[in-house]
Amino acid sequence: MKVLRCKDVGVDCDFEAHGKTVDEVLKKAKVHAKDHGIKRVTEDYLKSWRKLIRNE
Ligand SMILES: [Zn+2]
Questions:
Q1: How far is the CA of 40 from the centre of ligand 1 (A)?
Q2: What's residue 10's pLDDT?
Q3: C-alpha–C-alpha distance, residues 6 and 17, integer Å
Q4: Rounded to an integer, what distance in angstroms lies between the CA atom of residue 12 and that of residue 22?
Q5: How far apart are the first and last CA of the chain?
Q6: How many angstroms is it from 55 CA to the middle of ligand 1?
Q7: Among 7, 10, 32, 55, which residue's beta carbon has the most beta carbons within 10 A?
Q8: For the range 35-39, what are the long-range contacts, defined as Cβ-Cβ under 8 Å and sequence gap of 24 or more?
Q9: Are strands 2-5 and 16-19 parallel, antiparallel or unpaired?
């Protein structure tokens, strides 16, 4: 499983996006980003998130 932790992004939040693939994780992260007021997830966000995804 792959995981992206909100904490790793630098946000004080316990959310973790899990998935079998990077795309799956990013999809969940995109939805969750709305909770942090990010209405439009740009390519820059995706690029930085991709680097923070870890294997579990
Ligand atoms: Zn969060």
A1: 15
A2: 94
A3: 8
A4: 22
A5: 5
A6: 19
A7: 32
A8: 36/6, 36/11
A9: antiparallel
The percent of residues above 90 in pLDDT, for the chain, comes to 100
Find the helix or strand (DSSP H, E) in which 55 lies.
Answer: strand 54-55
29-32 — which CB contacts under 8 Å span 24+ positions? 29/4, 32/6
Predicted TM-score of the model (pTM): 0.92
Q: Which two tokens stand for residue 1?
A: 């499983």
pLDDT score of 30 = 97
Distance 45 CA to ligand 1 centre (A): 14
DSSP assignments along 20-49, one per residue: SSHHHHHHHHHHHHGGGT--S--HHHHHHH
At position 39, the amino acid (one-letter code) is K
Q: How far is the CA of 36 from the centre of ligand 1 (A)?
A: 6
